[in-house]
Amino acid sequence: MLEKVTNSLSSIIKTISGKSTITEKNIEEAVEQIKLALLDADVNLRVVRRFVNATIEEAKGEAVLTSVNPGQQFTKIVHDRIVALLGDTKQDLHLKGPDTLSVILFLGLQGSGKTTSAAKLALKLKNQGRNPLLAACDLVRPAAIDQLMVLGEKIGVPVFAERPKGVASAGDAVEVARHALAAAKKGAHDVLIVDTAGRLQVDEAMMAEITAVKKIVDPVETILVADAMTGQGVVDVAKAFDDALSLSGVILTKFDSDARGGAALSLKSITGKPILFVGTGEKPEDLEPFHPERIAGRILGMGDIVTLVEKAQQTIDTQEAEKLQKKMANETFTLQDMLDQIERMSKMGSLQSMLEMIPGMAGQLQNSDIDISALKVQKAIIQSMTLKERSNHLIIGPSRRKRIARGSGTSVGEVNKLIKQFEKMRQTMRKFSKNKGLAGKQLF
Description:
Strand content: 5-15%
CATH class of the largest domain: Alpha Beta
Radius of gyration: 26 Å
CATH superfamily of the largest domain: P-loop containing nucleotide triphosphate hydrolases
Helix content: 55-70%
Mean pLDDT: 82
Oligomer: single chain
Number of strands: 8
Shape: flat
Order of helices and strands: HHHHHEHEHEHEHEHEHEEHHHHHHHHH
């Protein structure tokens, strides 16, 4: 996530923050390097110019040059400037009360991830106690209705859909939206998320159709879904949609694959529209609220411990954690417990993304340094065991190991390795839990 700009800026910040004294020349050199890093990250030229001018003006002030820690003061200025670029503060959805229907209209180009994002947001709202309904108003892309229905079934959210007879027209989408609105009110839903048709590029037909749909559903949020990997091209798309439909915010998809950051760093300054959420993976849970201050911290290599803790709290149950702690102390931790922990880790997201949230870790480890495949192998081996074997690894003799290796598509050597690692882990856990200085302390 934003590896390119993170590596560049964190290196510059690390260099200057370590200086006990800095001069105007130091500041100019650092800002010049930051400017080049931002341009290389595909940030809009006007945004870069504003950033550079504001940073130099503030950094050359007496508060920095005469400060006890001028390097740290300069770092804070750069951090605050980046936060301002990203949007200052987190923006929430402006939904009505739970007894009143709120409509969210999704729009964007084809392939931007509208349908998937609609389902992700529906799941997030459902988990917050809302009662959402998804409306399949994309009648242009052949598989759009089926895709939304499959996603809706997966997350447990109903989908309203009507298939057109013959070739779909703009009027058909309007009628589906009208009927979906009536169904949402009749079904006592408090949120209706409308997935509309996209095109390969902005055109009049698409804008006319979405304008007509918007007039019918009267949304409280009109959200553009855009691909973060298209860089500052997102800005032009956002401006076009905003001019025609008056956007309320943006969801950036494929944010976890965006190495440059041009879209995120340019969007708010040029369009004035906030980034509401970012897509950080393919799973229904992979939609994060956009916190400008936290993202700025990640970009500068300062990490994002708050988001990491929030992710952990969503997947770790307090009672389960206490049970696990007792098992560690009593040496009753089993291979089934190990499998449960691997699955919990996968729910928190990729190991790479979690490491990026730890201060100082961004850019330090490459994908090749993290043996993610090892966890998948371990999971496959344990899943090939019987419940009895998972609860008592001591009964897994040579013949059982051969069967487990065949069932998991691995070798007996890999099965042996896992069991040895597991036994060593149990010993380490027992020592850890019995250490009076560490006992009772939890990571989260």
